[in-house]
Amino acid sequence: MLTAFDKKLLNVLQAGLPISSRPFADLAQEVDSDEITVLERVRFLKKEGYLRRIGPFFDSEKMGYKGTLVALRVIPEFMKSVVEVVNRYPGTTHNYERNGKYNLWFTLLTPNENLRQNILGEIASLPGVEAILNLASHKKYKVNVQFNLK
After folding, report:
1. What does the alpha-carbon distance between residue 26 and residue 34 come to, in Å, rounded to a whole number?
2. What is the pTM of this model?
3. Residue 128 has pLDDT above 80, yes or no
């Protein structure tokens, strides 16, 4: 169960981590605490699954990368092995199992179309993959969602 402090910490973390030599000490000041407590709670929140990731977001397009949303239809018995392979590709993000005809969705960032097609070809040939949709992005719409935990 989340404490009031945990919720306050998560609210502040959503806005970003300070860029400094001691970001968690700086964060502690924002939440009226100390660095050790903040680090302990962050570890707890990560271990318990409340916090999935802390890290930067890069403008992939400015760095020369293009993204695509990929939908796979995977035979359920092969789901785990397909997910493990898909997750090995460095450009894979946001990999989710879903209900429906296409039951595995992920995004893939690549520096060029040839690499994207090679990766998608390899994934399409995996045992258990019945179909693949490559829904390449043409225009980026960035949505910044922050939840106010009370």
Report:
1. 9
2. 0.68
3. yes
